[in-house]
Write a structure and sequence with these properties.
The protein has 194 residues and is mainly α. It has one domain. 70% of the residues lie in helices and 7% in strands. The strands form 2 sheets. A two-stranded antiparallel ribbon has the order 1-2. It has a two-stranded antiparallel sheet with strand order 3-4. Strand 3 and strand 4 form a beta hairpin.
């Protein structure tokens, strides 16, 4: 049974996924159709677990925001390329190209993913605990989600002839961005959950 706010988030997801799926089909963007499937699976897992996990509404909206920004990265074009490749601010140039839209979305996505993992684990934290130990476990759980994401991206490069996934440097930068997001989430949780 979903709360009114959870139903609102669900409908926002349905509208978003429908809109982006239609766009990706019209663009013949098979890479991002694959990501739509992943987002739908993620949504299903979160919805199925709401009877066991009390996700705060801001975490559900965070998942929505990450999904929206992720999908947007595959639709909006600038200089003939999707904005996933867009350089936001040139901190480091070739071959690493830091700081891109992709890196920001990874950091944000796995900030939210780490929050999700904390709330999955929270009900098992029945005794007082030290934030160092729990922070390490929660960050590693968030990074596990990030690694799963990289597996999905690798599968896209295997199954599809053309993707915007990038090579080894991109994978390493994604993992670093995921790490930054996970660590920031732990600091945020420590402050919020005193």
């Amino acid at each position: 049974m979903l709360t009114k706010e959870q139903k609102t988030v669900l409908w926002a997801f349905v509208v978003m996924v429908t809109g982006f799926t239609t766009t990706f089909i019209l663009q013949k963007n098979f890479e991002f159709i694959g990501y739509v499937v992943v987002v739908c699976l993620l949504l299903w897992v979160v919805l199925a677990s709401t009877k066991h996990v009390l996700y705060p509404n801001f975490v559900l909206w965070g998942l929505f925001a990450w999904s929206f920004l992720h999908m947007l990265g595959g639709v909006v074009m600038t200089n003939g390329k999707v904005i996933y490749t867009f350089m936001i601010y040139p901190i480091v140039g070739e071959p690493y190209n830091i700081l891109k839209y992709d890196q920001i979305i990874h950091a944000f996505g796995f900030f939210v993913g780490t929050l999700v993992m904390y709330y999955v684990l929270k009900k098992y934290l029945t005794r007082p605990f030290g934030w160092l130990a729990v922070g390490i476990v929660v960050a590693m759980a968030g990074l596990g989600l990030g690694a799963l994401n990289e597996i999905v991206e690798f599968m896209m490069t295997v199954l599809l002839p053309n993707t915007n996934v990038g090579g080894y440097e991109n994978t390493a930068l994604d993992l670093i961005s995921n790490f930054i997001g996970a660590i920031l989430a732990v600091f945020y949780l420590k402050r919020r959950e005193k």
